[in-house]
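Hi V.,

You were right to ask for the full record rather than a summary. Here it is.
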Amino acid sequence: MTYNFLMRRKLLKELILEGQETFELKKPIPRDISFDPQLSTRLNKVITVSGVRRAGKSMYLKQISLQLETDPQQVVFLDFSESPLTDFSLDDFSELPTLFKEMFPQSEPVFFFDEIQEVPDFEKGLRYLQNRNYPIIITGSSAQLFSRDIASRLRGKTAEIKVYPLSYFEFLRFKEFEIKPVYGPAEKARLALLTDEYLTWGGFPEVVLTDNPETKRHLLKGYIDTMLLRDVIEKNGVQNMPLMDKLLSKVIDSFTKNISINKWYNDFKSSGFKVSKDTLYAYLGYLKDTGFIHTLHEYGKSQGSAQKVYLIDNGLYEVRRKLNRDRGKLLENAVFAQLLREEHSISYWNNSSYEIDFITESKLVQACYSLNRDNSSREILPFEEFNSLHQTKLKGDLVVIESELPIKEATLFYDWLLP
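Predicted structure:
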């Protein structure tokens, strides 16, 4: 055996031990994300945990291990965003079971691979382990791209779990607020403050667990910068970084609104940027592939039609906003994010007189921060108009934070989220 080979084996064994220590220290707050252990144990699927950066995928691996009843000694946890693993290869994948058995001859390994997309041709290594019936759970960022490619790269032998930033009720759990049927005055006041915090700063776990606004802003800025650098610029070979940054700012400023690439093209040209419409479409696609940005198309229209833009998390708007905070738009974006978590197919609808924020397979949804007599008709009548025009009987949900009208006219955000 060569010296380099022996040193490599020693390094991998050290990484296995370090990974076990790191994994054991993880103390997850439970997430409301379903996982069927039989997908791994009986069906031998590679469990793919996908989602945007910093949404809590790594911590969710520990929750999966608890559901699998994995002994700490069985864990092989490798974080491929760490520098000692930058040159990980197919040979290393094949060595892992042998090295593990040398270290723990009485145990069977369970493999947890974090940020697996950092490894070139990782699917070959995973197939090697899968063919030997080892449980494998992986995570990956560049949410949309990773999710889209992983099934084909692993020939369909996967089961995907999507992890989003915290839902509203997960947020309350992280804040140690007890969910009850009825609240006293002090609890109602705290709930109102927490709701405002959630709408303003969103649900990225690290951001939720800090109370300092400047720290929240610093964390969110870091997420955006990392997303731009790693998932957009480096991955796609983007050359015009100032244009990409300016486009992201335009997208964030436009959240919940209709966007027009033609208008943006003219805006950029008048600002001195050398750009084509094809470049703007491509750059917008790169942003969407990260999962931080989503677009909706109008109900019944083709994919090339007008589209509205939304953010995966409200905090992304707070850290880059240039205008005064618009709580109505923040509520609308939070409602969108919840519908996305529920894996609905979502579109929107408008005509010359009416607009509906969201249409799913089973319901029509409007988001209105404050309902009153002046705006009630504008928010409620579109339900009747849509069902009449399209000969449907979809249920209409009007989601509000506060209402001057009898509550039967609308559903409070808190109640709308209840199962």
